[in-house]
Amino acid sequence: MKKIPFPLLLLLLWSWGPALETLQAQPKPKQHNAHPYKCRITFTDKGDTPYSLQHPEQFLSQKALQRRARQGIAVDSTDLPICERYVQHIVALGLKPVARGKWENFLTVACADTAWVATARQLPFVRQIELVWVKPPFAEEEMAPQRQELTNELPHFPDTLYGAATEQIALLQGQRLHEAGFRGEGMTIAVIDAGFHNADRMEALRGATIRGCKDFVNPDGDPYGEGSHGLSVLSCMAMNRPEVMVGTAPEATYWLLRSEDESSEQLVEQDYWAAAVEFADSVGVDVVNTSLGYYNFDNADWNYAYRHLDGHHALMSRQASRMASKGMVLVCSAGNSGAGSWKKITPPADAFDVLTVGAVNKEATLSFFSSVGHTADGRIKPDVVALGELTSVIQPNGSLGKAYGTSFSSPIVCGLVACLWQARPQLTAHQLIQLVRQSGDRIDYPDNIYGYGLPDFWKAYQLPLQ
């Protein structure tokens, strides 16, 4: 089991339901990490692509094109798929593609050795080759996770519509948006995370609209059988069980995308994340939540320093910084390193034009673990804060539990961002981000601890654009 990075901190303090148990199914070995190396190959150009900017419907959905048209965003060369002829040249070297990124124009491959690198560097269309994954020494064969048994025993809170989520909604005045009829209908949210254990079959999520699920770590895998972190993140938004738990966007549609490989902590996970973001763009997602971030790797040579928090250094940060210009809003967790030696936010939380979310308790005091800013180039981070202590979440056995982490303050905000955009559909992604900041209770004196403070989404609904 890999050491768990900050975004995967999931401290379940108690649950309303039976203890977790596992099914006795026979586990099967995973195959996605069979090769000992993975490398990211960046190309110089898009080459003789068969795709054309005059026909974007060939590589972007109608929903994606409508989202861009509504915001006056043109399709450009970064949207063109990578050159297939280049890919075939690389495959001919005996390499296996595992991820593609058209915005950064890269192909990530798995390989048996690195002897091919010198040859590939001589190819006129190859700009850079980076090692991004090495099979851990003495690695044990990975086994597919076993599904946990489910419970249908959920508590009721008859005095409140929102049930266990009452405090986390009220702290941001989210219930007022909902009362006005804005509950996320017509909005699409992607959750990019580590796994969504049992989300496909639990009673607790009955009523949530899941458009699809895709695994970028292991295309042959089952994200519904993997880790539960993404499930708990999803529940903060998608729960729609009155008097049990109602999330911040109960009527939105969701894509569940797995990019985190819990078997190791290496750069390749950013390649998977980049591919997931581009998929979300292509299918027309409006808002993305990611409660992932990286600064400390199994290979210490890859570790980040504070100077790297400039929105450009990490692949995830570069990718995230493009999202608003594609018409999407990224909401991401600040990180849980506030009490440690690192203390700072973690990529992609340093990206430009995203909403980075820190954690507070129910008294609106910063949580001891919540990572702080600023970025290396002096931008305000985090942007806003939300409840990250004793946050109500769903656990992989379908019961209600409580959790700590900016992993959960982020989706609370993300769901309300979707509701706000439903309420004010004329806004661009950039304008929506700015409006959320302007609604913060520290807008007149933002800092590197609370950012712009607690956003008031009812106030944001009423604020004029500045």
Write up this protein:
The structure is a single chain. With 466 residues, the protein is an alpha/beta fold. It has two domains: 37-134, no CATH class; 154-461, Peptidase S8/S53 domain (Rossmann fold, 3-Layer(aba) Sandwich), CATH 3.40.50.200. It contains eleven helices and 16 strands. Strands 7-10-6-11-12-13-14 form a seven-stranded parallel β-sheet, with helices on both faces. The protein is globular. The model is unreliable at 1-13 and 17-29 (pLDDT under 50).
List keywords for this structure.
four-stranded antiparallel β-sheet, single chain, 466 residues, seven-stranded parallel β-sheet, Rossmann fold, 16 strands, disordered N terminus, globular, alpha/beta, 11 helices
What would a concise description of this structure say?
The chain has 11 helices and 16 strands. The chain has helices at 62-70, 84-91, 117-121, 166-170, 174-179, 229-238, 268-282, 315-322, 406-423, 429-438, 457-462, and strands at 15-16, 37-43, 96-101, 106-111, 126-134, 188-193, 209-215, 240-241, 245-246, 253-258, 287-290, 329-333, 355-360, 384-387, 391-394, 400-403.
- Category from helices, strands and their pairing: alpha/beta
> What is the rounded distance between the termini?
49 Å
Q: Looking across the biggest beta sheet, what order are the strands in?
A: 7-10-6-11-12-13-14
Please state the CA-atom Rg, rounded to the nearest Å.
21 Å
Q: Count all strands and give the number.
A: 16
Proportion in β-strands: 15-25%
Secondary-structure element pattern, one letter each? EEHHEEHEHHEEHEEEHEHEEEEEHHH
Question: How many structurally independent domains?
Answer: 2
CATH-derived topology of the largest domain: Rossmann fold
Shape: globular
- In CATH terms, the superfamily of the largest domain is Peptidase S8/S53 domain
Helix content: 10-25%
The CATH class of the largest domain is Alpha Beta
Number of helices: 11
